[in-house]
Amino acid sequence: GRKLMQDMLFGGAKEAAVIQASMAPDESAEHAAVQAAEVLATNGTLATDGAFQPPMPKAAETLSSERHITLRRNPDQNIGLGLDALDATTAFVDSIIPGSIHDWNNTHPESECLRVHDRIVAVNGISGDTEKILAALKSAVEWNLTILRPVEVRVSVDCACFPTLGLDLKYSPNGNTLLISEVSDGALRDWNARAQSYKVRRHDRIKSINGVIGGAKALLESASSADKLDLVILHYEP
Predict the structure, then answer these.
(1) Could you tell me which residues are beta bridge partners of residue 60?
(2) How far is CA 62 from CA 39, 98, 151, 197, 225, in A?
(3) Between the CA of residue 121 and those of 1, 6, 118, 139, 190, what are the distances in Å?
(4) By CB atoms within 10 Å of each CB, which of 49, 128, 197, 228 scores lowest?
(5) Are strands 40-42 and 151-158 parallel, antiparallel or unpaired?
(6) Residue 9 CB partners (closer than 8 Å, separation 6+)
(7) pTM for this predicted structure
(8) First CA to last CA across the chain, in angstroms?
(9) Residue 30, Cβ neighbours under 10 Å: how many?
(10) d(CA 12, CA 179)
(11) Secondary structure (3-state) at 205
C-alpha cells in the first residue's frame, strides 16, 4: 500500500498544484452537507489473486449523465457552496452548507436540485474555464446549469499484485475527495481493460479508500500501509 500511494503522490498529488475556490460564507463553519441518494454501480473487482470478478447487478439508474437544471438563488443570502477548481474546466461541488442553495434544495424536487459531488460544466452558457464559471455563479441570481452527476464504482486492488496504481492525483487541503488527473500504466489501467461497463478515467474522483470517507489527507493516510485497497470512485459519464 505504501509503495502504491507514494507512486500516486509523486505522480501528481502535490498540494502546490491545488486551487481551492470556496463560495461558503465562512470556511470554518460546520459543513452540514446535503446527503443525497447516490446510485451505486460496479465494474467488478480484482480479487486477491489478480483475477477479475464479474460485476454485481446494477441499480435501476446506472449511468452518470449530463443534466440541465435551472435554479434561482436569494441574493440576500450566502450562496453556501464549497467548490474546488482542481480540473480547471468545471466546478466540483464539495459541500453544501446552510445558505441559498441549501434552501432551494429543501423546497424543490430532487430533479431540480444541485447535489454534493456534482460537476458544474456550464452556467448561463459559460463553460470551459473554471474561474469564469465561478465568476458567473457569484454574479448571477438565476443559474441555467449544465452538470455531470456521478455513479459510484467500486475497485479492489491487491497491492502485492501491482507495483503501482498508475494514477496521478490532485487534492485540495480542505477537500473530501482525490481528483484523478491522469490514468497511466498500473492496476487501474489493467482494471479498465477488463471492465465490462464503466472505466476509470481522468477527472473521476476517489471518494473512499478502505472505508475511510472525508478529508483528502485522511484518504491518503488510510492507504499508506494497506495490503489491499478498496476504492469507491465517483465516475462521470458525459
Answers:
(1) none
(2) 6, 30, 7, 10, 33
(3) 34, 31, 9, 17, 29
(4) 49
(5) parallel
(6) 169, 220
(7) 0.75
(8) 32
(9) 8
(10) 10
(11) strand
